[in-house]
Design goal:
heterodimer; A: alpha/beta; Rossmann fold; four-stranded antiparallel sheet; 35% helix; 20% strand; B: alpha/beta; disordered N terminus; disordered C terminus
């Protein structure tokens, strides 16, 4: 896939996001208002090149799902720009937005919760066609619709007989296929997939990952894939953005990120992911982070990661907000000390790395 | 310890020759419901766990791994669930002992950590009280002494400011902290056996790494025997000494951890390993999924339950009960138990205890697999 990326003009950007913010009003205080807002997404810039996959990875509460929804305006952003194929999404009124959504669709994590249990698969797949005026009308309409449903089911690898069934009759993996077929029914350009495989059994995850890759190749889709599993994200993405507390701390081509993670959070995250190979596991260096994610309503000053950072320095980290800097081609990182960490001039502190210290903290 | 490589290695096996602390033999659990065919959730499972060792029980949903742990701890409902077989803890059968004796053991000698700490902690009782409850019940400690111990335990599992936290309710804690509280409760009486059922599945990876380290330390320092139930092969690779792979209620493969990952013989185990994207694997390579879903199974009585999803399956796989046989034995692939005996607790299995066992007609050939992995 990366060869294709190289061949494309770099400015063929389908989705451009600048300074996107989503703040939820805080609760508490008199009348339940007035508390500090929860800064779920706090200033994110993204460029998604047509035909490629951008992966967003981070822990729960880092704002990755909110970011995905804000791009489609399923959650209203509080500030920033979202430009989809030259159209300013935030400036659109209700009806133009609804029409634009034909071109940007979403696949959700839990297909059981996102598919209406009382609708048959046929009806689930026809609904978006009708909503966007793509269903045939008049005498030939019904036949056209049936043909389209069969085509969609075939596309995601389900038998035509599935059309008459209901969501509960399918397994998790098959339901996710229906969710994908529904998103693809209206022939979108962009698909935002929020944790598309994390609710599935291990042996079924690979089927859905392969399906998403095949569909991208066949239909030229552009993906934004949101997941907490870095191994999955790395596998299907061309570019990966790592999020922490509402902002992107590192963005890089998938292979570059794995070979040379630059941000301390990415380094820690990678070292924490178990690898199904005992030989590797026994030899790995593991950096254990202390504590939990701070509250996004009251994020730490300076670098937001400094409260848990094993590489934290005396200066700058606590009071100066780091900006994304390009250290290698297309590889940006928001850390004051990234070069020093990369060159090994700063090493992880004992405090954060020592498991015994974590336990007795 | 810092980031030393040794810290990641599990403890060497101090008690390899010691008699097992928990010895489960031919465990069967059948769920019956009026008007429905009985469901054999666990179908003749045997395994041993020794002090200071971690046994991994791996499988997907429906493999019977959680039901196994519930049966061993006597937590299945009496109605509707028929349990047979043996679960010997130091020679005492957990399945047949009187309830009062079981109640005295549970929480003291046998402790459990479940997947979702929000549903296993009492939401209307402060976490401190949930720890002291266990201590006072089993050690007869005074209220004040138990409280001090609770504070100490919370500190040991890495909860900052434990003196304040003991007064808090579960909803005031984050997911990782709640799971730490569960582990603190489990650790309270220094159990000899810890059963952890998907202890890290609901947690983020960085928190998972902390919890795994905590469990590993418990095994290393207190010599606790641990039964770790999980679907995550990565966690298994890092923590377990021995691994038992379950499919549709039966053990399909068992081996020492390095052996299992280097030379998986059962097609299901090999399929699982090939279908997981690896962080350190080549990225462009396509994943090799296992076709179908865990629900597409055959009853074991009519052949291999995995046959409908297996690329190597043929008629030989559908010829009645398959035995769990040593993987290295010549002609192992063709071994089929005769008659109705399904081959658990057989002398062959006893002889190969700790060795590599599998239940497959057409196992993955050694050489071929080695070539594949290069």
């Amino acid at each position: 896939m990366s060869e294709q990326v190289a061949a494309r003009p770099a400015d063929d950007v389908l989705l451009r996001v600048r300074g996107l913010q989503v703040h939820y009003p805080g609760r508490g205080g008199l009348l339940g208002r007035g508390a500090a807002p929860v800064r779920a997404v706090d200033g994110v810039d993204l460029d998604v090149v047509r035909g490629t996959t951008l992966g967003l990875v981070g822990e729960s509460g880092c704002g990755k799902s909110t970011l995905g929804r804000a791009v489609l305006r399923l959650t209203e952003p509080t500030a920033g720009d979202v430009v989809f194929d030259g159209t300013d999404v935030r400036a659109l009124g209700r009806e133009p937005l609804r029409r634009l959504r034909r071109r940007m669709q979403m696949v959700f994590q839990d297909p059981m919760a996102s598919l209406d249990p009382r609708q048959s698969v046929q009806s689930l797949l026809v609904e978006p066609l009708v909503a966007h005026g793509l269903a045939g009308t008049g005498r030939g309409g019904s036949a056209t619709r049936d043909a389209r449903v069969r085509e969609l089911l075939d596309l995601v690898g389900l038998p035509a007989s599935a059309a008459a069934k209901y969501p509960h009759e399918f397994s998790g993996g098959q339901r996710q296929r229906i969710g994908i077929a529904r998103a693809l029914a209206v022939e979108p350009d962009l698909v935002v997939a929020d944790e598309p495989v994390s609710a599935l059994d291990v042996s079924v995850q690979a089927q859905v990952i392969n399906l998403l890759e095949d569909l991208q190749e066949r239909l030229g889709l552009t993906y934004v894939v949101i997941a907490h599993d870095l191994a999955v994200v790395r596998h299907i993405s061309d570019t990966v953005g790592v999020m922490y507390l509402g902002s992107i701390v590192e963005q890089a081509p998938s292979d570059g990120l794995y070979e040379q993670p630059l941000h301390p959070y990415t380094i820690s995250l990678m070292s924490a992911i178990p690898v199904p190979d005992p030989v590797v596991e026994d030899q790995r260096e593991r950096i254990l982070l202390t504590g939990d994610l701070p509250s996004p309503a009251d994020p730490p000053s300076g670098c937001r990661f400094h409260t848990r950072c094993p590489f934290r320095q005396e200066t700058r980290c606590d009071d100066e907000v780091p900006v994304l800097r390009e250290l290698a081609p297309a590889h940006t990182v928001a850390c004051h000390w990234a070069e020093q960490i990369r060159d090994g001039r700063i090493t992880a502190s004992e405090r954060a790395a020592d498991p015994a210290a974590t336990v007795s903290a | 310890m810092s980031t030393a490589t040794s810290s990641a290695a599990p403890p060497s096996r101090p008690a390899a020759g010691a008699p097992p602390l928990l010895s489960v033999r031919d465990l069967r659990v059948t769920f019956t419901r009026r008007g429905r065919a009985p469901v054999h959730a666990v179908d003749g499972v045997s395994f041993d766990v020794r002090a200071g060792e971690v046994l991994g029980l791996v499988g997907e949903s429906g493999s019977g791994k959680s039901v196994t742990s519930l049966a061993v701890t006597g937590l299945l409902p009496r109605r509707g669930a028929q349990v047979s077989g043996q679960a010997l803890l130091d020679g005492e059968d957990l399945l047949t002992m009187p309830r009062s004796r079981l109640a005295a053991l549970r929480g003291k000698d046998v402790a459990m950590v479940f997947q979702d700490p929000m549903t296993s902690l009492n939401p209307v009782v402060p976490v401190g009280l949930q720890i002291t409850e266990v201590l006072r019940r089993h050690t007869g400690a005074s209220r004040a002494a138990a409280k001090e111990q609770a504070v100490e335990l919370l500190g040991r599992v890495g909860i900052p400011d434990p003196r304040r936290r003991v007064r808090e309710f579960p909803h005031q804690l984050s997911g990782g902290m709640r799971q730490r509280v569960m582990i603190a409760i489990a650790m309270a009486c220094s159990p000899r056996l810890l059963i952890a059922d998907e202890p890290t599945t609901a947690l983020d990876v960085t928190i998972q790494a902390q919890v795994v380290e905590l469990l590993r330390e418990l095994v290393r320092e207190q010599g606790t025997a641990m039964l770790l139930i999980t679907h995550d092969l990565g966690v298994v690779a890092g923590v377990c000494d021995d691994v038992t792979v379950m499919y549709s209620g039966r053990v399909v493969e068992r081996a020492e951890r390095r052996e299992l990952f280097a030379r998986p013989r059962h097609r299901y185990t090999a399929g699982l390993l090939a279908s997981v994207p690896r962080l350190d694997g080549p990225r462009q390579e396509r994943l090799t999924p296992i076709p179908g879903t865990p629900r597409d199974v055959l009853p074991w009585s009519s052949g291999c339950a995995f046959a409908p999803r297996c690329a190597a399956a043929d008629d030989a796989c559908l010829s009645g009960d398959l035995a769990l046989v040593p993987a290295g034995a010549p002609g192992a692939g063709a071994a089929v138990a005769s008659g109705s005996g399904s081959g658990h607790g057989s002398s062959a299995e006893e002889a190969a205890a700790g060795g590599h066992l599998m239940r497959c007609v057409h196992p993955v050939p050694h050489d071929q697999h080695e070539e594949e992995s290069r």
